[in-house]
Amino acid sequence: MTKQVLIKNANIVNEGKIFNGDVLIEGDRIVEIAESISSKSSDTKVIEADGLYLLPGMIDDQVHFREPGLTHKATIETESKAAVAGGITTFIEMPNTVPQATTIELLEEKFARAAETSWANYSFMFGGTNHNLDEILKVDETKVAGLKLFLGSSTGDMLVDDLQVLEKIFSNTKLLISAHCEDETTIKNNLAKYKAQYGDDIPVALHPIIRSEEACYISSSRAIELAKKTGARLHVFHLSTEKETHLFDKKKKLADKKITAEVCIHHLWFTDEDYTSKGTKIKWNPAVKTQKDKDGLWKALLEDRIDVIATDHAPHTLEEKNQVYTKAPSGGPLVQHALVALLEMYHREVISLEKIVEKFAHNPAILFDIKDRGYIREGYKADLVLVDLNAPWAVNKENILYHCGWSPFEGTTFKSRVRYTFINGVLAFENGKFPNRTHGERLTFNRG
Ligand SMILES: O=C1C[C@@H](C(=O)O)NC(=O)N1
């Protein structure tokens, strides 16, 4: 008989509602959701979830797991395991690896590596450059999550700045285009100004002045304009400014939106005041900006001008991060702590549980047309998370799972913790331990 798991008496958070009930898993799928389900056989594993909240597994649409080529920073195995401990059951990984995922062959190698080692479900973005239009046009949109374009330079030198090429890509690809938007000319001019003043040792607090609001706004506006002109499907990654949020529409149903937006945990949590205590640990591209920006991002998220929450999990070693401003790479690890950070914001009455689930599970599933995931529904894959909202713990070196061994949240106490995570019906994480070595599946899409 197929293996069964019965989750009893959970507060189920799903599709805008919270209700008390039981969920029965058989094999890799949810087979029944009801007020009360009795155990069907003696070897059904029963989880008494009294007081816990059951959420669909989070879907993180932007992570950097550094494989191949940068495995001193992270691997698919280490980071997907950390993700599972953090309640993320599915991730979409970025192409700025070494080599970059800019040919179909290289991309398929990443899929093969993930099939062997990933704990969580996965897909990848194909990388666009100034030179691989032909290859972009060969990519089958039913097989990959989308196309990533760096419209501002960041880790991995993948800047696409040939405007003619860009227009051809937007006009011709059927792939969902995810864009990193920061205007390169603005950044370069700002950087030159402060380099003249400070040399390489620029105070990190100037990062949001160098990678400025203006840089973000110019680039996002340009990408949106191009998407409108060409009819391309555009998803703007990691908005970091209040100003940009007004470029996005709040009225339409998500499935009908052709232009969507993402916000990341670090931009919802930190502000420029934190550079003093955290230094380059919170150096990200785009930069963490002002309190006004953070407030604006929250407002846009809650008003549905921003559609999804992600992490942009981007680990670097501490040695790399602890360099002077111009040498310290941008990015930091987040997948283990993103959900509990959002639950902290729930405790602070900033966001509801229903909204967290909508933005971090339902909406990425809708936006990427992910098949059978992102919801607690009968017939869907059993990617599930049970969280305890009242079990405080502090992030420290002993409980950090990232390969790089540090977190921008070190020293932070979170009220909530992830108790159980299921990947395709298999219990991957249980109270700090990993009872089963799960193997995530390649995402399939309702497209084409
Ligand atoms: O766009 C990016 C890339 C990422 C990385 O390190 O890969 N780090 C960032 O801060 N932003």
From TrEMBL:
NCBIfam families for this protein: PRK09236.1, pyrC_multi
Q: Which GO terms describe its cellular component?
A: cytoplasm
| GO molecular function per UniProt | allantoinase activity; dihydroorotase activity
The catalytic activity of this protein is classed by the Enzyme Commission as 3.5.2.3
Q: Which domain of life is it from?
A: Bacteria
Organism encoding this protein? Halomarinibacterium sedimenti
Q: What range does the record give for the signal peptide?
A: none
* Keywords for this protein: Hydrolase
* Name of the protein in its database record: Dihydroorotase
A biological process term (GO) from this entry: purine nucleobase catabolic process
The record lists the lineage as:
Bacteria, Pseudomonadati, Bacteroidota, Flavobacteriia, Flavobacteriales
Tell me the ranges covered by the Amidohydrolase-related domain, including all copies. Answer: 53-426
